Amino acid sequence: MDSLRQNKVNSLLLKEMAAVFQQEGRALLPGGLITVTGVRCSPDLGVAKVYLSLFPVKDKSEVMSRIKEQGHRLRGVLGSRIGKQMRVVPELLFYLDDSLDRAEAIDKLLKG
Are the C-beta atoms of residues 10 and 1 closer than 8 Å to each other? Predict the structure, then answer.
């Protein structure tokens, strides 16, 4: 169960990471859309798991590896945005959120 502080930090990071990917998304995924679907911080607020949804992408693993390579720079951009609210910017771990793909597949199975 997350604490109130964790929930506040999660929502702050979700909002700010969405803005970062709105700016940086064209370089990481030209012609595509990167959506931040969720952020979960560790209890010590040192690590943040960022869940991303990619659309329309054929090779999602390649795009995710490109995002992970740029993780340090993205953390720096995030730090410049939230530097006044947080003392330490958490380490960012990026994960692919495929829940929308699974929901779409289930929907197709139910319809046909």
Answer: no
